[in-house]
Specification:
By secondary structure, the protein is mainly alpha-helical. It has one domain. Helices cover 80% and strands 0% of the residues. Helix 2 runs antiparallel to helix 9, helix 3 packs across helix 7 and helix 4 runs antiparallel to helix 9. The protein starts with a helix and ends with a helix.
């Protein structure tokens, strides 16, 4: 491995970690869903990792197609910008719908029984719609720093370099997503929600909405 590739891989690793840390949309939606769906930490980590794979692969495919077709970098970045807007609005829409549903659900007067709680928890595991929605949103969502990282080794016809950049960037991004989600989930589990527990779905929807707004505003 030459010095140029080593430097590029170090950049890919650091950028993968930093861009994930600075993007709460990379981990908060999973923690929110894990809380209200009563997911185990393992289940949440698997869902987070799978969405992370889709998130990275979406940009990898676009980047490689652009590189092979000789598309200029600014054209690829324009496409990534459009994908980012779509992902942001999709996340906002999903969050708002979930918030309204959660408010209506929390406002209903019903008697909580042990059986009813277990039945509700079981039903939550059988409803995969929210997982698929988040997965699709993450596939749409761009990894903005990845395409510029791919351009340099691709321009030199170093497909070894391209492959290594994708692997390093992808692994650091996904690993950071999972670690942050687990840490945040463990922290939230210690919080006393009390009467707010009945509105946990609405709170989760609000958190997801805020993530979408932050993406749209470029925060």
């Amino acid at each position: 491995m030459n010095q140029e590739i080593a430097t590029l891989l170090a950049s890919a690793a650091s950028i993968g970690v930093i861009h994930t840390l600075l993007g709460p949309d990379h981990y908060i939606p999973f923690v929110a869903l894990a809380k209200v769906r009563s997911w185990t930490t393992t289940r949440m980590a698997i869902v987070t990792a799978l969405c992370g794979v889709g998130h990275v692969l979406g940009s990898v495919v676009l980047g490689l197609v652009g590189v092979l077709a000789g598309t200029a970098v600014f054209h690829l970045e324009s496409i990534e910008s459009v994908r980012g807007d779509l992902a942001a609005w999709a996340l906002i829409a999903f969050g708002l719908i979930y918030t309204v549903w959660g408010l209506r659900r929390g406002g209903r007067k019903h008697t909580h029984t042990h059986f009813g709680h277990q039945q509700s928890a079981t039903a939550s595991h059988k409803r995969p719609a929210s997982v698929w929605t988040i997965f699709i949103i993450f596939v749409l969502g761009p990894c903005e720093p990845l395409i510029p990282l791919l351009i340099y080794p691709a321009a030199r016809n170093s497909w070894y370099g391209v492959t290594m950049v994708v692997l390093v960037f992808g692994l650091t991004t996904i690993l950071t997503m999972v670690i942050l989600a687990i840490a945040l989930k463990l922290g939230i589990n210690r919080l006393p929600f009390g009467r707010l527990e009945r509105y946990s779905h609405a709170l989760a929807g609000a958190a997801i909405t805020v993530c979408g707004i932050s993406i749209h505003l470029g925060l």
